[in-house]
Structure formats: C-alpha cells, structure tokens
Design brief:
- With 340 residues, the protein is mainly α.
- It folds into three domains: 129 residues; 44 residues, Seminal Fluid Protein  PDC-109 (Domain B), CATH 2.10.10; 141 residues, no CATH class.
- The protein is built from nine helices and five strands, in the order H-E-E-E-E-E-H-H-H-H-H-H-H-H.
- The strands form two sheets. Strands 2-3-5 form a three-stranded antiparallel beta sheet, with no helix packed on it. Strands 1-4 form a two-stranded antiparallel sheet.
- The longest helix is centred in the middle third of the chain and has 30 residues.
- The relative contact order is 0.11.
Amino acid sequence: MTSSRLFIRIAKLALFFTYLIVLAGGFVRMTGSGMGCPDWPKCFGLLIPPFSENEITWSAGQEYISSQMLIHNDKLWIAKKNFISTSSFDKDNWKPFEKHNYAKFNVFHTWAEYVNRCIGAIAGLFVIALFVYSVFNKLSFYQIFGSLILLILFGVQAWIGGEVVFSVLDPFKITIHMFVALIIVSILFVLIHMADKSIDKNIPTINNNFNKLIILTLLFSIVQIYFGTQVREFVDSLPSDKSIWIFEINNSHINIHQLVAVFVFILNIYLCVYLAGKFDSFKEIPREVVYIFSTILILVISGIIMLNFNFPGFAQLVHLFSAFVLFGAQFSLFLKFKLI
C-alpha cells in the first residue's frame, strides 16, 4: 500500500469517528446526559466512571483515591489524597469542587457522556496517527501542515468540551463546539480529496454559473446551521414544558430559521437535479448527490415533526446529524469540482 493510500485511510477513519462524535453528542443532548460526568477529562475523578450511586457516596471504612469525586450533602467533593474513611466525613480529606455546583448522578447519563468522550478520544488518536504518519513518511507540505492544524483543533475542541461541562452546558459554548467540529470535518475532506488522485474520474465539465450555485448552496447551508444553533440556544433558555416552545419560537426572531430552510431546500434540490442530468446512468452520479438529496428530505421531515410534536428528542438528533451529513456532502462535492 502506498503512503498516500494509507494516509487517506487514516483520514477517513478520523472523519468517520468525527461524525460518530456528532451523533453521540446529539444522543447525549437528546437524553439530557451532558452533565453525566461533572468534571473533565475524567468522570467523577475516575478513568472508569461509577456504575452505581454507592461508588460516589461517602461511607465509613471506604477506600478513596486522590482526585476521586463524591456527592455529599448535595455538593461535589474531591479527595485530596489516598485514604480510608473513618466513622464520620472528615473535610480535611476533601476539598469542594469549585467549577460548578451541579451535583447529581444518573448512571445512564454518566455512561452516555462517557461513551461520547471515548469516541472523541478514538478520533483524536487517529488525528495523532495522521500527523505522525505524515511527518515520519515525509509526505507533502499540505498533508503535514493540514494534519498539524487538525491536531491543534482537536486539542482546542477538547478544551472547549471541558468548558462546556464547567459552564453546565452553556448554549453559546455548545455552539462554538459544534462549529469547530464543522471546521475539523472540512479539513479532513480537503486532505482526503487532495491526496486521492482517483477522485476526479468521470466528473463532467460544468460552467462557472453552476460553480457559483454550489458555493451559494454551501453558504446557505452554513447560514442555516447557524440559525439552527440560535433556535437551540433559544430553546435552551425556555422552561422545560415543551408545549410552549412552538408559541415562543413563532413569536421570536428565531423563526427566520424556517424561512432560510425554504431557500436551502430549493437550492439543494436544484443542485441534485442539475447534476443528475449530467450523467448517463444512476451509477455514475457522485454519491454526494444521493447524500444531499436524502438528507435534505430527512431535514425537512424531522423539522416538521419537531414543530408539530413538541420537539421529540429523536427528531432533534436526526435533524442535527442530517445537517452535518448535508454539509459534508456539499463540501465534498465542492472539492470535486476543483473550487479550491
């Protein structure tokens, strides 16, 4: 296997796990598990999170390790050292956790968030492997530089992840977290497309106006994602009673998200129809066109379900993940037509 082919495989694995992070993160949000682990990067100060509340509840004669966390009197405490507890809770062995005051435990939430972090760690390992491989095999400048930027962005993304937890899921920080993920996905697509010499086969010649259409479609989708984050931030500020969400959204400026969605739908459908007409058979049509057509329909259906059925969690997850898939398919198509 050539160096270029192995580089592409590692990049594709990193891309796959990055998308898996988005899916897992959406599941965490859908289930309300974002604070399942109250600290970062460990979970209750442990490498392997607790399976039961007894593991994070104080008891006499229990062995505790340094940095382990527990919930006592509705507060989070951190063990200062390794010790065995006596007959009463001794504050000299503990210090209060000061990042936030969220002190709840739900085993499902904890493990959902932990799995999400594990997937992120695996994606990070592939990014590290990508950078190390490109350096040791003396690949091209863009492969080394791109891999380095990815490595830095993953470090930044991990730091933002910690800030999201310490802020008790601040909506704005979640939005930043998501847009950094979009940048990471974009860089991975660029590295894959520039390294894969076979990717341009059977691509028809298109005129400049259509080039502009692809760019316009991509930009509208990014704008739509932005307004989608505004809807999410707005919804996060509302009471837990979902029955009032639709009324509040319809009486706010956030409903521009629905207006932009109309333009996104029209542009993407036109893009798919035009490109499909450029090929002699269905098999020759770039798979990105199929992804775009499928995800735009899923986005519309999931959006309608959310607006008419009080924002069910599964519809939110499908809507979020479909938006990422749509963006990736559009950006991949953008690169195929040599627009960089």
